[in-house]
C-alpha cells in the first residue's frame, strides 16, 4: 500500500515535468526507472522521414469586370466653314470722287480710245465702264474699280498726259469740222459733239461747250452769217438776259446762258446756241465780226 502511493506520486511528478518541457501527454512514458522511452508504436516502425508538405493549389480571385455602358459617339454635323468675302484690293482712285487724278485716269483711257469724251475730273459710271473695258482687254478682273494693279498697268500702257489733255476746253472732243468750216472765219457748231469751235482758215483758235433748242424749239442747221452783235441783250419775247449775243438766223443767236452754267444739259434753249463759260464767250464776242460765217451741223 505504501509502495503504490509512492509510484503514483512519482508518475504525477513526471507528467508535470513533461508538460513544462513542452511535451504532450502520451508522447513519452516513464518506465519504472524514471527514464524516457519511445511509445510502443514508434518503437516497432522505422523512424518517420520528414517530407515537405504537398503544395496546396493557390487560387486567385478574379473580380468580375464591371459592365460599363458604352455610349455611341455623338454624331454631330461637321462645322460649316465660315464664308468670307474674297479679299478685294482697295481702290487707288475710288468711284464717285473728283480731282486731278481722275482727270489723269480719264485722259489715259481717252488716249486708248476707251473714254469717248474729254476729262471732267469726276469718276462716274461712264468712267467706270471705260475702266472695265480696259481691264477686259488686259487680262484683269473687270470690276470697274481702279486698284493698284489696274493703275500700274494703265500707266505703263500710256504716256503721261499734257495739260491740254487734262484740261480740254470742252466736255466732249470737238467733232470733225464740217468742210464749210475749213475756210475763212467761222463759228463751227456741231450738234453731235455739242461743241463750238472758233476757226480761222481751218485752224481751231478756241472751243467751248454749247447747248441747243428743245424738240419743240430746235436750233436751225445750215450755213449762216453773223448779222449783228448785242453785248447786254435781253430777249423781247421771253424777257431773259442774253449777254454777248451774236445773232445768225432771225431771233436765234450764240450767247451766254446762266441757266446752262447752273443746270447743264438737263435744260434746253428756245433755239439759241447757249454757252456756259462766260470768260470764253466774252473773249469770242470780242473777236467775231458781223459777216463771219456760222455753220451748224450734226
TrEMBL record:
Pfam families, A to Z: PG_binding_1, YkuD
SUPFAM superfamilies: L,D-transpeptidase catalytic domain-like, PGBD-like
Catalytic residues (UniProt): 255, 272
Transmembrane segments: none
Keywords: Cell shape, Cell wall biogenesis/degradation, Peptidoglycan synthesis, Transferase
CDD domains, per database record: YkuD_like (cd16913)
InterPro entries noted in UniProt: LD-transpeptidase, LD_TPept_cat_dom, Peptidoglycan-bd-like, PGBD-like_sf, PGBDSf, Transpep_catalytic_dom
Domain L,D-TPase catalytic: 185-297
Disordered as annotated region, ranges: 28-95, 155-176
Protein name: L,D-transpeptidase family protein
Organism for this UniProt entry: Streptomyces rugosispiralis
Classification of source organism: Bacteria, Bacillati, Actinomycetota, Actinomycetes, Kitasatosporales
Amino acid at each position: 500500500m505504501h509502495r503504490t502511493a509512492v509510484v503514483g506520486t512519482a508518475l504525477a511528478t513526471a507528467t508535470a515535468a513533461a508538460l513544462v518541457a513542452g511535451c504532450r501527454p502520451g508522447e513519452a512514458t516513464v518506465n519504472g526507472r524514471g527514464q524516457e522511452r519511445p511509445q510502443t508504436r514508434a518503437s516497432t516502425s522505422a523512424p518517420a522521414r520528414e517530407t515537405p508538405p504537398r503544395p496546396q493549389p493557390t487560387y486567385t480571385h478574379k473580380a468580375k469586370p464591371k459592365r460599363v455602358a458604352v455610349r455611341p459617339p455623338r454624331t454631330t454635323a461637321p462645322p460649316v466653314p465660315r464664308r468670307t468675302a474674297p479679299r478685294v484690293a482697295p481702290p487707288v482712285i475710288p468711284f464717285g470722287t473728283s480731282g486731278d487724278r481722275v482727270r489723269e485716269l480719264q485722259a489715259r483711257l481717252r488716249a486708248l480710245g476707251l473714254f469717248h469724251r474729254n476729262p471732267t475730273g469726276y469718276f462716274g459710271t461712264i468712267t467706270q465702264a471705260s475702266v472695265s473695258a480696259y481691264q477686259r482687254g488686259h487680262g484683269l478682273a473687270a470690276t470697274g474699280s481702279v486698284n493698284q494693279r489696274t493703275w500700274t498697268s494703265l500707266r505703263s500702257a500710256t504716256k503721261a498726259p499734257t495739260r491740254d489733255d487734262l484740261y480740254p476746253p470742252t466736255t466732249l472732243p470737238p467733232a470733225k469740222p464740217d468742210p464749210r468750216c475749213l475756210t475763212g472765219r467761222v463759228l463751227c457748231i456741231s450738234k453731235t459733239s455739242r461743241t463750238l469751235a472758233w476757226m480761222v482758215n481751218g485752224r481751231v483758235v478756241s472751243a467751248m461747250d454749247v447747248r441747243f433748242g428743245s424738240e419743240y424749239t430746235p436750233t436751225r442747221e445750215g450755213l449762216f452769217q453773223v448779222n449783228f452783235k448785242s453785248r447786254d441783250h435781253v430777249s423781247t419775247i421771253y424777257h431773259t438776259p442774253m449777254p454777248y449775243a451774236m445773232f445768225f438766223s432771225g431771233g436765234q443767236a450764240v450767247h451766254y446762258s446762266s441757266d446752262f452754267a447752273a443746270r447743264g444739259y438737263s435744260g434746253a434753249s428756245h433755239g439759241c446756241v447757249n454757252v456756259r463759260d462766260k470768260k470764253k464767250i466774252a473773249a469770242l464776242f470780242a473777236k467775231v465780226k458781223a459777216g463771219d460765217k456760222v455753220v451748224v451741223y450734226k
